[in-house]
Design a protein that fits this description.
eleven-stranded mixed β-sheet
């Protein structure tokens, strides 16, 4: 069964993204003989060639047309010998191909990318990141992310300096030069970048400094606890203020929490607030029971916003940027 979904990406050869449920063990009409052709729950295809041919011919093993294969290649959903490839090429006997048949989609076409730019110069760009869109390429989609879309909008390659979770919105710094990327990354390592967040939570908490320790892991949700253990990562944040907002008759209130982040672990704020019984609104992964809404309408992402970033550069100049997530919400998708 095939599921066809409209999409628009820069490749003119791909007017449609076709989601394919592969037929395991059937080699279709591909002229390439394969040693193995298997799928993982219809989502990921694995193939090892027996004789020479082209990559598109190999993809036909999974029932893909040439157009569909080109589309998945342009999305960055195809790997040759575990390296992402974006175009058709000749295969040698015995080479291994992996294809993600149903890449996860993100709503990049609903965003005015020029409107997300808060500031730019010849070294970096400051972006008001929309919720629901990853910062960088994912394993099956190299196109629908902030880095790629802004590079297209600015007609210039950009480089990652920091990350925000897909579900989080707000300020993000991207480098225009490798030199600035190096300098900013060092500032982050030395904890010389001040970052403030606004979190909407379901239960109030005390102002003060919170220290937890995160279990090393590659998958989420992340586990934190108050006791230090060997190899567990220190997580430090400071709650600067808490105020009650959005009280509705008959419903419990929400609380807006201003947070200064001292360390920058994956899912740190989400895991720490959940650990103290104050999960972020909409963050079901960490125990939230509420939907993230605005004006009674569901919103993409969760109630966590990067609202302020500041640092001092190597010449002693102070850079400081602030956004109000309520005032700038119109640039976000959803």
């Amino acid at each position: 069964m095939r599921f066809v979904q409209e999409c628009s990406i820069e490749s003119s050869a791909c007017e449609r993204l076709t989601r394919v449920r592969s037929r395991e063990g059937q080699h279709s009409d591909s002229p390439v003989d394969v040693l193995t052709a298997t799928t993982s729950q219809g989502r990921i295809g694995h193939c090892r060639t027996k004789n020479a041919g082209t990559l598109l011919e190999c993809l036909a093993t999974f029932g893909l047309s040439s157009e569909e294969g080109e589309c998945l290649l342009s999305f960055g959903a195809v790997y040759l010998e575990r390296r992402r490839v974006r175009s058709n090429r000749t295969l040698l006997p015995g080479q291994y191909v992996r294809v993600h048949l149903q890449p996860k989609r993100f709503p990049v076409d609903t965003v005015d990318w020029q409107a997300t730019i808060v500031h730019q110069n010849d070294r970096f760009v400051v972006v008001n990141k929309p919720a629901g869109i990853p910062v960088h390429p994912t394993v099956d989609n190299a196109v629908e992310n902030v880095l790629h879309q802004l590079s297209l909008a600015l007609r210039s390659p950009l480089h990652i300096t920091q990350r925000l979770d897909t579900e989080v919105s707000g300020l993000l710094i991207l480098a225009k030069t490798k030199e600035f990327q190096r300098q900013f990354n060092q500032l982050l390592v030395d904890r010389n970048v001040k970052k403030r967040y606004l979190a909407l939570v379901e239960r109030t908490l005390e102002v003060g400094r919170y220290v937890h320790y995160m279990k090393p892991a590659k998958r989420s949700p992340r586990t934190v606890q108050s006791e230090a253990l060997s190899d567990w990562l220190e997580c430090v944040l400071r709650v600067e203020s808490v105020r009650c907002i959005g009280a509705t008759p008959g419903e419990p209130p929400l609380f807006a929490v201003e947070i200064d982040l001292e360390t920058g672990r994956t899912h740190q704020i989400r895991a720490q607030l959940s650990a103290v019984g104050s999960p972020i609104v909409g963050d079901k992964l960490y125990g939230s029971s509420k939907t993230h809404e605005r004006d009674h309408m569901p919103r993409l992402g969760i109630g966590l916003f990067s609202t302020s970033t500041s640092w001092i550069d190597e010449q002693g100049r102070v850079w400081s940027f602030t956004v109000d997530p309520l005032e700038t919400h119109n640039v976000f998708s959803g």
